[in-house]
């Protein structure tokens, strides 16, 4: 058993500790907002918040993050849209949308740690890949959320 707290719920996974967190979230917890894009740590579609850090969940095993607090896109906001999600809507960021949960999680962590990021800060922190090329709108939405 591997114990984690996921979206404020204690969870014990009866899975091999070598299971990537991404697959525990998607297959065992049915938290399918966290996406599988590449599986190699490059795209960021699988980004979740682990203890306040943006982490690519395909790259960590549940054993490595045992005892951690994990937040997925499903729990980013309890009652209404998170300010980042509101900015995403206001700026019309989404095209196909597949990468956006991971993108939004990465941005939410960035803004928690750096409420007024510069363009250079954004470029350094947000390395998620969007095949639709929404990068300009993502940047506008980050500044919108930070305003
Ligand atoms: Fe994890 Fe692409 S699926 S980085």
Shape: globular
Top CATH class of the largest domain: Alpha Beta
Number of strands: 5
**Secondary-structure class:** alpha+beta
Oligomer: single chain
CATH topology of the largest domain: Ubiquitin-like (UB roll)
Q: Cofactors and ligands present?
A: FE2/S2 (inorganic) cluster
Q: How much helical structure, as a percent, in the residues?
A: 25-40%
Strand content: 5-15%
**CA radius of gyration:** 15 Å
Strand order of the largest sheet: 2-1-5-3-4
Number of domains: 2
Number of helices: 5
| Second CATH tier, the architecture of the largest domain | Roll
Distance between the termini: 43 Å
The largest pleated sheet is described as:
5 strands, mixed
CATH homologous superfamily classification of the largest domain:
Beta-grasp domain
Average pLDDT confidence is: 96
List the helices and strands in order.
EEHEEEHHHH
List unreliable stretches of 5+ residues. Answer: none
